[in-house]
Design a protein that fits this description.
Radius of gyration: 20 Å
Number of strands: 2
Shape: globular
Strand order of the largest sheet: 1-2
Number of domains: 1
Helix content: over 70%
Mean pLDDT: 84
Strand content: under 5%
Number of helices: 10
Structural class: mainly alpha
Length: about 290
């Protein structure tokens, strides 16, 4: 059920959706669909998104990760934040055509988690928690962008293979250019993921969040598996000099694991500092902390 607090995020989703339509339309018919308008719509969505997160933070008095819904939309904000900065630095042509539809779809999915009773029950003022969350989220954001670049790479490769030199072909970078951008985003995200996992280990051990058997938590296990996949990707690139299709396919697999680690583990029974409690009990817990 859509309520008043949903409206800012609904507006954000609509702006992302229209931006997606316009960026895809630009590929098909540049005279009818303006690329600058697509960018402006995305930026407007990002600003509304930012304002909504500020509102959530002020309302709870904490960083907006008090439940799975807030964590999800915070992660999506990080994806757009990293993309905007990378686009400014590297002028990523047509990446928004691949990335914004993904962000839009994930934003719609995030809405389904609102109203759930899976709420965080640990202190949000903990240094170790903040030091764990921020690098992890930015690292995941970089991997989301590398996933979009992988889809772009495979699309351009298919066009070259089948000699499909249509409007999309001319608007995408070269395979070498996309491959280099994949490498840069993975190289940026991996140290942040590593840092986040290290700080997360300190957080779990110092506050005894997951008990003595913390290493058996599904999110911990899959977080390590995600780290190993991206470590293997970097190893293949640096040592084995792998490029192109193999890297793109592994990057897609890595992102699927990222998404499952972030959301899917809750369906497997992983708590990871979240508990099924009522909103009233949740407020009382946070006030005590």
């Amino acid at each position: 059920m859509i309520t008043l607090p949903h409206i800012p995020f609904i507006v954000t989703i609509v702006l992302y959706f229209v931006s997606s339509v316009w960026s895809i339309g630009y590929i098909i018919n540049p005279t009818l669909f303006n690329k600058k308008l697509a960018k402006w719509l995305m930026m407007m969505g990002f600003f509304v998104h930012s304002g909504f997160l500020i509102f959530l933070g002020l309302e709870s008095g904490n960083i907006p990760i008090t439940n799975v819904y807030e964590s999800f939309i915070s992660l999506l904000w990080c994806v757009l934040f990293v993309y905007i900065n990378l686009d400014y630095l590297y002028k990523l042509p047509s990446l928004d055509t691949f990335l914004i539809p993904i962000v839009t779809a994930l934003s719609i999915w995030a809405l389904t988690f609102d109203g759930g009773n899976l709420l965080i029950t640990v202190s949000l003022q903990s240094f170790w928690l903040i030091a764990h969350i921020i690098p992890i989220f930015i690292g995941y954001a970089a991997f989301t962008i590398s996933f979009s670049l992988s889809i772009m790479y495979l699309t351009q490769q298919r066009q070259l293979k089948h000699k499909l030199f249509g409007p999309l072909f001319s608007k995408l970078p070269s395979l070498e250019g996309i491959d280099n951008l994949m490498w840069k985003t993975i190289s940026f995200g991996f140290p942040l993921l590593t840092l986040g996992l290290v700080f997360g280990t300190f957080w779990i051990r110092t506050q005894n969040v997951l008990g003595e058997m913390w290493y058996l938590d599904y999110k911990v296990i899959l977080g390590l598996a995600t780290w190993l996949i991206y470590a293997a990707l970097l190893h293949m690139r640096l040592i084995a000099s792998f490029h192109g299709t193999k890297i793109a396919c592994l990057t897609i697999a890595g992102f699927c694991l990222v998404l499952f680690t972030f959301i899917g583990t809750f369906f497997m029974g992983s708590k990871h500092a979240f508990q099924k409690v009522s909103e009233q009990s949740h407020t009382e817990i946070l006030n005590v902390q």
